[in-house]
Description:
- By secondary structure, the protein is mainly alpha-helical.
- The protein has one domain (about 10-100).
- The chain is built from five helices and no strands.
- The chain has helices spanning about 10-15, 20-30, 35-55, 60-80, 85-100.
- It is elongated, with a radius of gyration of 14 Å.
- The model has no long low-confidence stretch (mean pLDDT about 90).
Amino acid sequence: MVRKTSKNNDLLSSVRKDTSPKVYSLLVDLVNDNREDLAEIVIKIDYLLEYTSACIRQKDFNEAKETIKSVESRMNTLDKEGVDMEHLKHLYEGIKKKCK
């Protein structure tokens, strides 16, 4: 079977420019394991972490707290599935510390 990359997969090609290399690598692994449903959750988490960071920069801590709760629930879903999300946890912990 051919390894899926951004050249032969629509999901990967749409997120390649917008995600960090570590997140993209995780997405490639999930897509190649036929777990595109989990890959979409990773994309949502990545977006929500960026949004939370923007809320913190704008001093909107209430919105940041609500968003970080949403990230927590999605990360629990990935954790139950056994996805290696060390990088996402690192980002999450860093952003959560800034959230007052």
